[in-house]
């Protein structure tokens, strides 16, 4: 999951406003926020840059936290032993 909505609402921005800043339709941003679609790395960076231009102080990892897989590095190594 991502934190686009959390950051956007903290700035009191509508989806329409943020989407317009990105040159997108509101529906595209909405799909990213609810997880119907996943943005690529370039679009993730554009979203973070737009949020920061609007006054946020966020990073790629804070908006798009790395997902934790089933295996951590330690358990993956243990499985390969």
Low-confidence regions: 72-81
SSE pattern, N- to C-terminal: HHHHHH
Helix fraction?
55-70%
Q: So, CATH architecture?
A: Orthogonal Bundle
Per DSSP, what share of the residues sits in E-state strands of 2 or more residues?
under 5%
Q: Number of helix segments?
A: 6
What structural category characterises the helix and strand content? mainly alpha
Output the CATH class name.
Mainly Alpha
Average predicted local confidence, pLDDT: 89
Query: Could you give me the name of the CATH homologous superfamily?
Result: lambda repressor-like DNA-binding domains
Q: For the report, how would you describe the main beta sheet? A: none
Distance between the termini: 32 Å
Query: What global shape is seen?
Result: globular
How would the blueprint of this fold be written?
Layout (H helix, E strand, L loop, with lengths): L3 H7 L4 H8 L3 H9 L6 H13 L6 H4 L9 H8 L1
Helix pairs in contact: 2-3
């Amino acid at each position: 999951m991502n934190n686009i909505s959390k950051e956007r609402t903290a700035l009191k921005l509508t989806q329409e406003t943020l989407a317009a800043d990105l040159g997108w339709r509101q529906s595209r941003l909405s799909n990213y926020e609810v997880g119907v679609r996943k943005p690529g790395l370039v679009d993730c960076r554009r979203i973070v840059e737009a949020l920061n231009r609007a006054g946020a102080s966020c990073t790629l990892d804070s908006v798009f936290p790395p997902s934790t897989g089933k295996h951590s590095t330690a358990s993956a190594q243990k499985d390969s032993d």
